[in-house]
């Protein structure tokens, strides 16, 4: 058999195409996961994540327990320091714990309102515990542990001298008794508050303590007294004074007192042959009770005090601030008289400068009073402070000494001064807490006009000089006929000789 186109026999290979299509297009069984098994697989994944997180927390807890047991068995010797938590650290620790618990309860309540499955709720609760626990730990490490380690390290690196609570104290109480201590708050002056604090401190001093009371209004040096009842009596007798020494100078006096007493005590112990002659039997301290007013201190710090304190390491100095953070005051800062000595019947101009701090001058008046012959005060004038503006040329700056802002300048006139000595006062009608600068006193002396004797050869020349020196509407003229050779009257203080002819 012969084929016309034998090459087409290769087309038989195309018969394999249906075979290939048969295998490719044949149906295959589908793999379907049973819904119950799918739920179990998802819960398995969630449970495994929760278990891993719990295992991590359990691992950390076991590590901490083992480390604590090892440290307890080794019994480490720690340097002396205050290892207990301070009030700030305890409050901060409790606040972080409370905030963490409230955040956890709030979020869990939010999740429960979403009506999710119990498995999802458990998963979210696990991650919520881990997240809030980690955040709380970071906050505790940052706000509690970090300040705690810094404080303990500072006490270890620079420890304070160990002082027993039963060691008697030799203390000096230095009180600022300047007028600024009369500022009242809560119906109590600054000096009264300082006295109450000092009295409470006296009650807590150990037995056999000695105390000396100093103040800035006197240069007296009070001896050390062991009778604290007598010290309290002296303490209550302190009063403010317009005259006051700088607290820097009084502090130097107190330091010298402590140094001299320390040397005397050392000499007595050495002479008695005591084995502890090099140590002091007292804790020596100086307490300064002040409102920290700048007027009570020198403008430049004293280098001598600093040098003394560098040498006397055993001396402790404490400043008790009884001042007010935001004071309120209005007062008379300066009083100026046009003349302090005048002739009878003339007038005097009185100028007052008003300063205010934290208070306005509304409904406040400046009153002028003078005393009559019986010593009674009589009101002579009154000016409202709110109607007078500050002078244009006054600098708009604060007073460096008192911190008060310059206020208005008021000028009052006191006419017809007819007393030889006139005493008066300017008074501000205000109820501010600081009273000493609400009143300023002044004294004016008045004398009769001096007598002038005019001697002239003719009446017209004498009349001209009389009109020039004392016009008739202003004075009472008295004429006396005298001889040329007569000497001037001994009662006259001044003599004027005009165009007199030579005597014969």
Automatic annotation (TrEMBL):
Domain (VWFA) ranges: 172-262
Domain named Aerotolerance regulator N-terminal: residues: 1-76
Pfam families, sorted: BatA, VWA_2
The UniProt record lists the keyword NADP: no
Membrane-spanning intervals of the chain: 6-25, 56-73, 85-107, 127-148
Keywords assigned by UniProt, alphabetized: Membrane, Transmembrane, Transmembrane helix
Region (Disordered): 383-414, 484-504
Membrane as UniProt keyword: yes
Protein name according to UniProt: VWA domain-containing protein
